[in-house]
Specification:
By secondary structure, this protein is of the alpha/beta class. The protein is 46% helix and 15% strand. It has helices spanning 34-44, 56-64, 72-100, 120-131, and strands spanning 2-5, 16-20, 23-27, 50-52, 68-70. Strand 4, helix 2 and strand 5 (68-70) form a beta-alpha-beta unit.
């Protein structure tokens, strides 16, 4: 994960980079906005990048280059759902281990009916978001 901060008004002369708990932190250099740093990063590796931004200009730029952009609000909701899913999964795993002693065999039900298929672009975007 990389976080980019503006340094264009009072930042350092050169771009600075730090790493904290596995998060790369970039401070744009004086005279350069964080938007420009993000655009440069997207141009270098658009297909493998997911940009979290509420800036429409950046989101459009990322999408045009084949990357994935999600709004800050959507990202917050995804993280909330992931946290809930992790909690539910842990609880469910605990319940299953308790029930496994009583129930030796389990059968799964097959789903019926046509499935909805996403476009390749949407599948690719969803895969990148899942990796978050």
């Amino acid at each position: 994960m990389t976080v980019v901060f503006d340094g264009w008004q009072g930042g350092p002369v050169e771009e600075e980079r730090d790493k904290l708990s596995g998060i790369d932190i970039i401070y744009s250099r004086k005279g350069e906005k964080a938007d420009e740093v993000i655009k440069r990063m997207v141009q270098e590796r658009a297909e493998e990048i997911v940009v979290v931004t509420s800036d429409r200009d950046i989101a459009d730029f990322v999408s045009r280059r084949g990357g994935t952009a999600i709004s800050s609000q959507d990202f917050d909701e995804l993280m909330g759902k992931a946290k809930t899913a992790m909690t539910d999964h842990a609880r469910h795993t605990e319940e299953i281990s308790d029930k496994e002693e009583d129930d030796e065999t389990r059968t799964g039900a097959k789903k019926k009916g046509p499935s909805r298929r996403l476009s390749r672009r949407k599948k690719s975007a969803m895969e990148r978001i899942r990796k978050l």
